[in-house]
Every structure is written in structure tokens, then in C-alpha cells.
Design brief:
The protein has 10 helices and 34 strands. By secondary structure, the chain is α/β, with parallel strands linked by helices. The chain is globular and about 60 Å long. It comes from Reticulibacter mediterranei.
Length: about 500
């Protein structure tokens, strides 16, 4: 079939009607595409903004109906909403829908994103009171339950979503227990060294945080309503609501057998967002963008990154759409520097770069009075990422250092920096373990690189009920509370600041 590269006519199909899909469609029209445009989405709603769901929607500041994304222009598209893509028929250039319809295309953009990782036991997951937070409907259901004033909320997983849910619970005056399989909250995104700050933040705000702890069993009553949870530390908790915050799964199942370089890690593409086939040959009429894409960044040693960030979805969608219309000589590379932010417990946490690429971390700036700190991440003697708490404006200068491949540890001579820099291991979990929501992560190099784990090892790593180590030593107090005797008990000395 003749390539349609550089053409502004024909049939373009976008599978995925969320942020990336919408921004790609708008870019196509802005750059002169006059052909037939179809957007396919598995939810019945027009594209909406997901970040507010775990923040302002749960807190009751806005309703889920007010998260609809603004339109930058009329895209004159055919919308096929409420129906999943079931298969990709490459020989006939068609997307097969779950309802049996077939949608033909000349060019295809895959933007199917991710879904919430469910609780592994289906019967327990179906109990009244067990929730996830990914969709508008998820957020609406959980908001209603939190507004009803449950006696205790259990949050399973202390990644960004779990931590934000816990923060909202405390703002609402609700008792909340958070269980985390790793040694600290945010271990998958920031590493356990930085996670000690997040742990102290949660505990200072009244969260019953249980690290190195898993939930073994969720129990329902005679009416199939959740009422108890059994933990690996031996406790049984009476809970009304359990929020499963175990990270995400990429929506690639519909591509199985299609002949593309796609698996559970995502869909592999080149820097121009063109999809590779299963033999490692880049295609010219199929593109990918957003959370489902695996793409090479020039700063990260050929590793294919997956990036679950709002701004990356926008940037990559715009690049993919531009390249769908551009002649080969004018295509551009997607070089987005990953950035992310989260508000929790009245602290703003931001990152730039790829913390999960690092093996070492060092505190570079801190202020006890402003509860502010900045930590730099390194690998191979090079600065690769920075995370800041309550210091958003500082990241611009650090981003320039990352892009310039500055040495690690960085010599900043900052007035609020420590007298000496003391790099320590960053403490990221073993690759392959579900790390809740790492935000951005390397996934291996090359379009045909296989998964690196055996079936049994994968099963154990993916099952959130299996503790990673022996349960922590527990000291029980007369008031019934408990606290782990682990590294989280150690004070973090950062000059004047202690977390």
C-alpha cells in the first residue's frame, strides 16, 4: 500500500479519546488535515482531565462533570465513544471494535493509555466499598463514599495516587490507614531515600502508615459489603472503604497478534512517534502517544521510557500528529523532558527528569523554616533528575543542568545547601515490581527486548498481597497504635532540617 506520509487527506483513526487523543486531533486540524477523522474511546464521556480526580473531585471542590477538557478548536471528528477497540487488523487496515464494527484507516494513532491495576482477587474486588481511582465514574463513587463519613478508609499502595487519596481523607477529617509494600511511600517514583520525607509527612498529618506491609485479604459481611482487612503485619482492621492504588496497566491487549512491538510495557516507537513492528521495522503510517508509548530519550542511554505525565501526553500527541502529516524531511523528534507534580498534605512535590533511571541521590538544598528541600539524582557520574518539595521555581535551573549532562553530584554552592554533599543509594524497588505510579520509568532498550523475568518471579512481583520481605518488628503501645522499627524511624539529617 502506498504511504500517506505528508498527505493532508485520507482517513485518520485515533484509538483513545482522552487527553492525548484530543490534543492530537486538534493538532491535525490546526496543521491542515482535511480528511476524515475518527476518535474511538472506551468511556462514554468526551475527553476529561484526570489529575483533578484524585485531588479536587474527591475533596468535593468540583464535581467529576466539571473535568471535561476545554476544546482548542473544532476538530470536525466522528466520535465512537463507549466502545473498546478489540483488535487491529493490519492487512485490511481496520480497527475492530468490541461491538463487531470495523473502522478503516489510512493512518492510525494509538493513544489507549492505561487503566487502574485491580485487586487480584475478583470476589474481593467486587465487594461494596472496594474502589479504584482512574475514571470519572471511579472518582464520583469514591467521593460519595468519603462524603458519607466512613469510620476508616484503607488505602492499598502509597504511590502518588494513594498518597493523594490519603491526603484528601485527612483534609476531610477521616481516619485513614495506608499500607505500602516497600519500605517507604513513593518508593517506586522517588526511591526509598527520598521516601523517608514522604513517610514523615504522612505520619505528621495523622495517617496510620504501615510500610513493608501488604493486605492479605479483604473480607465482606453477609451483604457483600467490605468490613475488614487482614494485613501481613498480623493486624485486622475494621474498614468501610478500601482504595486500591496499585498503579496502572497499559491498554495493549487489543494489539495482541497484530504484529507490532507491543506488550504489557507499552507500544514501542521511535523519536518521531512511529510504531515499530514485531520485527523491529519502523512503520510509516502508525503512531503512538501518551501513557501507552515506549520511546527513546537521547539523555537516557537508549532506554525506552514510559511516561505517565499530563504534559508528556500533550507534547507527544502534538509531535505525533505533526509527523503524521509532515514529509519525512520535516518530521521532528519528541524530546520532552519528563516533569511531574503532586500536592499532598499541603506540600507541593515536583520532579524533572527520570528519577527511576538513577541509582544515587543527594540532598542539595533545604530550609527547615519553609519545609523546603531539593534532592538531585545521579547515575554514572551524571545528573539525571531532581525532585523538589515546596520549591517549584528552582527546577528550571536544574532542568538546564540535566539537559547539559551536568556532573553528579552537582556543585551548586547554594546558600541553603549543606556544607558537604553526601550521596547515598536512591533505593528504588527491583525492576519489574509494580511500583504503584512511578510516573516515568525505563523499560529496556530496543523494540524487541523481551521481559526480563520468569513466569513465577513475575507472578510474585505482581501480586500485591505477597510481602517483599519479612514483616517488620512491631511494638504495640497501650493506646493500640503501632510503629515499625525500620529505617523509617531513623532521623534524616540535612543540615538544619530533620524530617
Amino acid at each position: 500500500m502506498t504511504s500517506t506520509a505528508g498527505s493532508t487527506t485520507g482517513r485518520v483513526v485515533i484509538v483513545g479519546a482522552s487527553l492525548a487523543g484530543l490534543r492530537a486531533a486538534e493538532t491535525l486540524r490546526s496543521e491542515g488535515f482535511t480528511g476524515h477523522l475518527t476518535l474511538i474511546g472506551d468511556e462514554p464521556y468526551e475527553p476529561y482531565d484526570r489529575p483533578p480526580l484524585s485531588k479536587t473531585v474527591l475533596g468535593g471542590w468540583i464535581s467529576e462533570a466539571h473535568t471535561t477538557l476545554p476544546r482548542q478548536r473544532d476538530i470536525a471528528a466522528e466520535w465512537l465513544l463507549g466502545t473498546k477497540a478489540a483488535a487491529l487488523d493490519l492487512p485490511n487496515r481496520q480497527v475492530q471494535l468490541a461491538d463487531g464494527r470495523r473502522v478503516p484507516f489510512d493512518r492510525l494513532l494509538i493513544a489507549t493509555g492505561t487503566r487502574a491495576r485491580p485487586w487480584p482477587d475478583k470476589e474481593q474486588a467486587a465487594l461494596d466499598g472496594v474502589c479504584t481511582v482512574r475514571t470519572r465514574d471511579d472518582a464520583a463513587r469514591l467521593h460519595a463514599r468519603l462524603a458519607a463519613g466512613p469510620k476508616r478508609v484503607l488505602v492499598i499502595g502509597a504511590g502518588f495516587i494513594g498518597s493523594e487519596v490519603a491526603s484528601v481523607c485527612r483534609e476531610l477529617g477521616l481516619e485513614v490507614t495506608v499500607t505500602e509494600r516497600s519500605a517507604t511511600p513513593l518508593a517506586g517514583a522517588l526511591g526509598e531515600a527520598a521516601g523517608t520525607f514522604a513517610a514523615s509527612l504522612q505520619r505528621r498529618n495523622g495517617v496510620d502508615l504501615r510500610c513493608n506491609t501488604t493486605v492479605l485479604h479483604l473480607e465482606g459481611d453477609a451483604y457483600q459489603k467490605l468490613h475488614r482487612a487482614q494485613l501481613s503485619d498480623g493486624d485486622e482492621l475494621d474498614v468501610d472503604v478500601a482504595v486500591v492504588a496499585l498503579g496502572s496497566l497499559r491498554n495493549t491487549e487489543w494489539l495482541q497478534g497484530a504484529g507490532l512491538a507491543a506488550d504489557g510495557r507499552g507500544v514501542v516507537c521511535d523519536a518521531a512517534c512511529r510504531v515499530f513492528d514485531a520485527d523491529g521495522v519502523v512503520t510509516d503510517d502508525m503512531f503512538v502517544a501518551g501513557d501507552v508509548a515506549r520511546w527513546p530519550h537521547p539523555l537516557y542511554d537508549g532506554e525506552l521510557l514510559v511516561v505517565e505525565h499530563w504534559s508528556n501526553a500533550v507534547s507527544q500527541a502534538e509531535t505525533a500528529a505533526h509527523n503524521m502529516l509532515a514529509p519525512t524531511t520535516t518530521r521532528r523528534a519528541h524530546k520532552y523532558m519528563p516533569t511531574f507534580w503532586s500536592n499532598q498534605f499541603r506540600v507541593n512535590i515536583r520532579s524533572v527528569g527520570v528519577p527511576t533511571f538513577a541509582d544515587t541521590i543527594v540532598l542539595t538544598q533545604a530550609s527547615a523554616e519553609e519545609r523546603r528541600l531539593v534532592a538531585a539524582y545521579g547515575r554514572g557520574g551524571r545528573l539525571v533528575a531532581v525532585v523538589a518539595a515546596n520549591a517549584p521555581r528552582i527546577l528550571t535551573s536544574y532542568q538546564a543542568l540535566i539537559e547539559a549532562r551536568a556532573p553528579f553530584p552537582p556543585e551548586l554552592h547554594a546558600s541553603d545547601g549543606p556544607a558537604e554533599l553526601h550521596p547515598i543509594p536512591a533505593g528504588f524497588p527491583k525492576r519489574g515490581q509494580p511500583t504503584h505510579d512511578p510516573g516515568v520509568a525505563p523499560t529496556g532498550a530496543g523494540p524487541s527486548t523481551p521481559e526480563q523475568w520468569g513466569e513465577e518471579e513475575v507472578r510474585k512481583l505482581l501480586d500485591p498481597r505477597v510481602p517483599l520481605s519479612a514483616p517488620p518488628l512491631i511494638t504495640r503501645y497501650t493506646n493500640g497504635t503501632s510503629m515499625e522499627h525500620t529505617s523509617l524511624q531513623q532521623e534524616v539529617h540535612t543540615g538544619e532540617i530533620r524530617s
